[in-house]
Amino acid sequence: MTTAEFLTGGLRPHTCSACGTCVLVKKNSWKHTSIQWISDAASSCPVFAEHAAAGENTALLDTCERLMGSIAESVRSGEFGELDE
Fold first, then answer.
1. Has residue 82 been placed in a domain?
2. Per-residue pLDDT tens for 14-42?
3. In a domain, 7, yes or no
4. What highest taxon heads this organism's lineage (predicted)?
5. Residue 81 counted as domain residue
6. Helical H runs in 1-85?
7. DSSP code, position 59
8. Which of 5, 24, 68, 81 lies 20 to 30 A from 50 at CA?
9. What DSSP element (H or E) covers 34?
């Protein structure tokens, strides 16, 4: 497996149910989530935009809690298939 395959393999589009921002997501397990933003987070995500407007460095944010909730709901509904505990 090449580095590129490791980094991008298995990524699937996911649209946040809170704001409509589309990201790429890979779920290896219930606890492991990889997110690749395909747009500027500070421009497309209201949570990131709020932090940017406050002068914060959005690169230091883990991710958007609303996006994580949206992904978790998709996992529960089976969108990402069966996951290891």
1. no
2. 999 999 999 999 998 888 999 999 999 99
3. no
4. Bacteria
5. no
6. 3-8, 41-44, 46-53, 65-76
7. G
8. 24
9. strand 33-37
